[in-house]
Amino acid sequence: MSDLKNKPDEYWRQKLTPEQYAVCRLKGTERPFTGKYNNEHRPGGYRCICCGELLFTSDTKFDAGCGWPSFYAEAVAGNIDKTRDLSHGMIRTEITCSHCGSHLGHVFDDGPAPTGLRYCLNSVSLDFDPAVNLAGQSEGSGDDNP
User: Would you say residue 1 lies in a domain?
Assistant: First the structure.
């Protein structure tokens, strides 16, 4: 497998929309209350738009009232990297996809139980997959498929 973190900008410019590129590769932020997954309530999983890695599942999604999709736990340990972010005159923790380095958003310590965390995501950095069950597996991936 190629190392997606080291792909050149041109690769990402061709793969992503201009808005996805601005958020995922240049660490931008979509405007609050504009993202397509802010009010998504179907069961399923949320994958990285750049590489397809499973990041979150709907059973940990909650309405934080902040205008961005929010989750209190990661779907798969190790799929998200956390880095201290001192930009914009704030101290925050940036979250990125550990597989491809895509900027996803930030994590804060003002979320609900059981973790107390609020992973605040940009919708454009995600792809919703209704085939992911709440155990984090794609449905229909077993040997019993016709």
Answer: no
State which H helix or E strand residue 15 sits in. helix 9-15
d(CA 136, CA 108): 23
Please, are residues 104 and 53 in contact by the beta-carbon 8 Å criterion?
no
Q: Which domain holds residue 109?
A: 7-129
Report pTM.
0.88
pLDDT in tens, 53-81: 999 999 999 999 999 999 999 999 999 99
Give domain status of residue 145, yes or no. no
Token pair for 97: 């996809």
Number of domains in the chain: 1
| CATH number, position 33 | 2.170.150.20
Report phi then psi at 138, rounded to 5.
-70, 130
Assess if residue 85 is contained within a domain.
yes
The better pLDDT of the pair 89, 77 is held by: 77
Residues carrying an active site annotation: 120
* Whole-Å CA distances, 140 to 55, 75, 131: 19, 19, 8
Distance, in Å, from the CA atom of 104 to the CA atom of 83, rounded to the nearest integer, reads 12
Element (H, E) at 18: helix 18-24
In a domain, 146, yes or no: no
